[in-house]
Amino acid sequence: MPSYSATEVAFLMVASQQAVLAFGWLAGAALMVESRRAALNWAAYAALSALSLVLFVVSVKPGIEPVRAAANLCIVVSLIALQRGVWPSSACRAAGAGMRWCWRPRSGSLPSGSTRPTAPGA
Predict the structure, then answer these.
(1) Closest Cα to residue 71, out of 6, 11, 5, 2?
(2) pTM tops 0.85, yes or no
(3) Which one of 19, 67, 91, 116 is least enclosed by Cβ atoms within 10 Å?
(4) What gap in Å lies between CA 33 and CA 40, rounded to an integer?
(5) Would you say residue 113 lies in a domain?
(6) In this predicted model, which residue has the larger pLDDT, 94 or 47?
């Protein structure tokens, strides 16, 4: 049995948790019809995060840079999936911004009595 460092053990533990969460989000997607798309994106995020952590542990040995590159790619794609899962419930989507990113609420999307935050010194 290979000997793992404390960091590698921690990575593998978090990878196991993310794998379990991926199955939980898949089960949730089967049950929640209205939120299915978001739950599937979150399941993809959790699965890709778990895969990336396992790949990081595997790529500890020198000379396996393509595995580390694949792990980095999995992280980027997982964060894209996470953001795509958040978009349907965000204020930007409700304000009619579509899939574009908006940095602050558009007029009419703030609750009554609310004001837009202003930058200090503006």
Answers:
(1) 11
(2) no
(3) 116
(4) 11
(5) no
(6) 47
* Burial of 109 from C-beta contacts in 10 A (0-12 / 13-18 / 19+): middle
CB 68 within 8 A of CB 59: yes
pLDDT tens for each residue of 51-98: 999 999 999 888 889 999 999 999 999 999 999 888 765 655 555 555
Does residue 56 sit within a domain? yes
DSSP alpha helix (H) spans, the chain: 6-31, 36-58, 65-86, 91-94
Please work out, in degrees rounded to the nearest 5, the angle formed at the alpha carbon of residue 52 by the alpha carbons of 46 and 54: 105
CA distance 110 to 104: 10
Query: Rounded to an integer, what distance in angstroms lies between the CA atom of residue 107 and that of residue 20?
Result: 41
Structural domain including 55 reads 6-94
Alpha carbons 20 and 17: distance in angstroms, whole number: 5
| The total number of structural domains that make up the chain | 1
39 assigned to some structural domain:
yes
